[in-house]
Every structure is written in structure tokens, then in C-alpha cells.
Amino acid sequence: MATATDNTVREDRAQQARAAARTRRRNGRWRDAGTVVLLRIGVIALTLVLWQVLSGPVLPEYAVSKPTDVSQALWKLLGSSSGWTDIRTTTIEVAAGFAIGVVLGTVMGLVLGSFPLAGRVLEPLVAAVNGIPKIALAPLFLLFFGIGPWSKITIAVTGVAFVVFYNVYLGLRLRERELVEVVQVMGGRRHHVLGYVTIPTLAAPFFAALKTGGPLAILGVIGGEFIASSEGVGHELFTSAMNLDAATEFAGLIVLVAMTLVLNGLLSWLDRYALKRLGLGVRRPGEQRQ
pLDDT tens digits, residue range 164-213? Predict the structure, then answer.
């Protein structure tokens, strides 16, 4: 009886020790995250102060403006209906181009990766087309689609599709044949191979391609709006540059940075969620199953 009681006491103490260790790790992570945030804020504040002080005496104010002027221009941009029209137009073009590019690149990668002969025949052609600078195709797309949104969407599609294609295609080629054979020997069918081998193998490179393709979609849309457009953030940036309005130029760049951060945040959340559902999430050091 005494032995059972002692074992119970030891188990309770062990559970309390594990709970205390988890609490310390959690508090440590919060402290580290808070320190990083404070350091980032400090770097941004120092940059703004140096920018404000050096603009004029050291740097030409007409080229770099000042944070105070940029804040006023940003407030004016966000307070006008035309500014939100430009933001909405660019957002729609980026979202459409990114989505279509992901679908197109995934389909191309799956088809050429699943049929080796087709991959050997078409991969050099895909590489040749991918070697063409995407912005060089913009005049051609403008001839086909005009200065409307579809010319910018098409430029974004070409940038995203090739990145997704190569990640999916190479992921399929690097899929371990032994795992496929093990599943087949155990009586698994195509959907078993897809669920237990192919999807886990492609998950990491696919989401890496999404994170790489997001900025490329924004780059393609802004480049297309620079060349020919009647609205959009790129059109606003081009107009400001022609008018030597550095403050509005920087305000537009801040909007682009915000769009990039939002898109990257959404893709990072989707990455963590999908990998967790697939059981591929990496546990932190010291973390163990209960």
C-alpha cells in the first residue's frame, strides 16, 4: 500500500515538474518574441529619425522626401476614393494572377511529373519560355488584352506558374520510389499512394513555391501597371515619379509593403495549418507528446 502511495506521489510530482517546464518554455518564448518586436520597432524608429534629419542637409529632399511629408501623402492617399480604387484594382489583379498561376503551375507539374515521357519532351521547352524575362512579355500581353486588368493578371500568372511548376515537378521526381512500392505491396491503390506518399512529399516544396510566388505576382502586376494602365498602385507610382512627387511615391511603396506583408502572413498561416493537418509540423525542441 505504501509503495502504491509513493508511486502516486512521484507521478504527481513528475507531472507538476513537466507542467512547470512547459510554463517556463512558454514564458521564455513570449519574452523572446517581445524582445524581437521591440528591437524591430527600435530599428524602424531609428531609421525614421535618421531619414528626417538627413533629408535636406545630406540627402536631396526632392528625391527622398521626409517621413512627415510621406505620412501626409499616405493619409491623403488612404483618405481619397481614387486611392482606394487603385488599391482595390491592384489587389484584385494580384489575387487573380496568383490563384490562376498556382492552379496552372500545379496542373503542369502534376502532369509532367506523372508522365516521365511528357516531362522529358516538354521540360526543355518550359525552361526556354521561363528564361524569357516576364516583364519583356508585357507588351505582347498588352497587345492581346489591352490596358485592362487581364494584361496585368497574365504577367502575374507567368511569374507564379513557373515557380509552382518546378517545385511540384521536381517534388514528384524526387518522390521515393521505395515508399510507393511499399504502399502498393500492402495493397494500396492510387489514392493511397497519393495520400500517404505524394501529398506529404509535395507539401513542403508546394508551400515554399506559394511564398515565393506571392511577391512575384505583386511584381508582375506593378510592372504591368507601370507600362500601361489607367488605375492601380503601379499607375500611381508611375504618375508620382513623372511629377517628381517623392512623398506620394514612398506612400505608394508603403502600401505595397503592407500588401506583401498581408499576403505573406496569409500564406504562412496556410502553410502551418496544412502541415499540421498533414502531421508534418515540426515540434519545438523539448516538446513531446502527452
Answer: 998 888 877 766 565 555 555 565 555 555 555 666 677 778 888 888 88
Q: In degrees rounded to 5, what are phi and psi of residue 55?
A: -70, 120
Q: Find out whether 168 and 109 touch, Cβ atoms under 8 Å.
A: yes
The distance of Cα 209 from the centroid of its chain, to the nearest Å, equals 8
Task: Determine the Cα–Cα distance for residues 112 and 125; give it in Å rounded to an integer.
Answer: 12
Beta bridge partners, 59, equal 55
Q: Is the dihedral of CA 246, 252, 255, 256 positive or negative?
A: negative
Distance from C-alpha of 165 to C-alpha of 109, rounded to nearest angstrom: 5
Q: Which three cell numbers stand for residue 108?
A: 503542369
What is the rounded CA–CA span in Å between residue 164 and residue 205?
Answer: 9
For 165-192, b/e burial (b = at least 16 CB within 10 A) is bbbbbebbeebeeeebeebeeeebeeee
pTM over 0.70: yes
Distance CA 102, CA 115 (A): 20
